[in-house]
């Protein structure tokens, strides 16, 4: 893991979803698409299904799904919803 | 503001922004779950639930696809999923089936063991397709065709199988029925020696049944399946008309029938009768052609033989008719010669001329007799015969018949036994054998005729099934000709079997010989060697009676006639001649031209002693006239005279030996003898 992170540009994301619920499915597709297009050289995306791991949501104070967390680089950002607004999402991910 | 206050303010702003974003996302429907604050677990929002339900319904609809059985099994072969259609087919509720062993619950006992071992293969992904019977709750069996796949978990471990199946019981039954019908059809066609062809015009592949291939001279399995290969076997002369008929059928998409010959590589030619149907596509091009073919060679040959037989029959009838009229003329010619010779002085120079006329007439009578023998319309009158006399009599005719390059040797056994047969038929037998012998010696040779007394014992008769032990007179006709193979010998006596060129032989010669001999209780033996010659041995039953010799015949005394005779004949010349013969011999003679006239004459002269009548006449026949007169004149004596008969005397053409009969042409002496026999001198 350490080696893999070293190779990335430092973008680390965590997406909380609720199983196969439609907005969750859409959010996964949207975040993958934008990462492949704009952060192809290196990124780390973790997808957490709250139905399977509800305890993980507590740690990050998740209230709704889908919720995307930008963990690194700081500042941390949080984007709520299906991540369909590419511009807003790109701004959040690029914020420094 | 302190740094702490500042951090606190920024945190509040962030939370507010986050709350706004959350609300906005909620309002725009982008949120599908909210974490419940008490249970700390996510709860799906109604909309998300609807969507999920929809998703599940769609999956269920898929599961409930009509006409498809869906079945999932775990690695222990327990049912983990079964759809509604599968339940309907099997007759179980889904809830009853879940968790039960598939093989023990739903398969017929007979295949459980086999299927259990197959299931392991299935788990390794080795059986993508399969077909087996399932057992319904009511005990009925259905045939299912399966498509199988392996189920794996996220880690790729096999957790079971998933199969979709189609109920093909009906298809299976239909297939079985079709197969039975197909086999039956195949058998019928094979048994009837009907060949089948099937042309796929889209690929150019021509398929033939083995029978069809055999008809065109191909060993089974060697027909290359091309139209060209077929066309090359069509007889050259028939190729163009065949192709034209086919082309026409292709143009119109209609049925066609053809008669054509096939030429085999070894030169064999067969006659074939074919029928076909062409199917056209939507663009008018031929798509498929199917048809049948029959070998009609034998039928064609039989037809030809039948025609030949008909022709021979017609020739025979014509010959018989001509011979009848001819006999009347010859009787007159010979009769008047006889009268002239009696009247002329022995020193008269004209006597020699008349004898020449008489000789020519006698030869013509012999020819007529041959014609009648050929047409088999001669009257059959079995008498005691000496074969030696007949052979000797026929020898000059045989020598003339067979030509100069064949020598004739006759060995006649002295003291030969007598046989009972019709002289005409015996002559016909000898003639047929002699002609065959001649035809077997196209380059000349020797024809030998032997006669012998033969006693056939059990040894001979046991190897010649047609013969009975006993005493026979054998007549052997041998040649030094080409001989016969065993195959030809086997078919020798078959009617219409002939090795002679078309139009030369009737194929009836030896068949006739055989028929006559067997009907007389005799038999025919054959001995032949290819390249050396043939011997045909005819065995006639030997008759113990002695042949009355010429000396024993009562001496003929002319001018001894006493009595009254009525001569009935429609031929004026013959009637007059007979009258003059009889008057010279001293008889009182009346004449009549028909049966009606004869009846009138009898009314006026009831004392007539003898009726001498022709057999075949216009109006009532001779036998009919006899029957009428015999009613009133029971003592009347009758003599028939005829050149031939058309069953007028008896249905079998055989005259009762007691019936007095005069063969036309007859001489004055023959007539006188007959009269003396009848009136007792």
Question: How does this structure look, described?
Answer:
The complex is a heterodimer of chains A (96) and B (681). Chain A is an alpha+beta fold. Chain A is built from four helices and five strands, in the order H-E-H-E-H-E-E-E-H. In chain A, strands 2-1-4-5 form a four-stranded mixed beta sheet. The radius of gyration of chain B is 51 Å and the shape is rod-shaped. In chain B, strands 13, 14, 15, 16, 17, 18 and 19 form a seven-stranded mixed beta sheet that branches. In chain B, strands 4-3-7-6-5 form a five-stranded antiparallel beta sheet, with helices on both faces. A five-stranded antiparallel beta sheet of chain B has the order 9-8-12-11-10, sandwiched between helices. About 1% of the residues of chain B have low confidence. Helix content of chain B is 44%, strand content 24%. The chains are: A alpha+beta (96), B alpha+beta (681). Chains A and B meet through helix 2, helix 3, strand 3 and strand 5 of A and helix 1, strand 1 and helix 2 of B. Strand 3 of chain A pairs antiparallel with strand 1 of chain B.
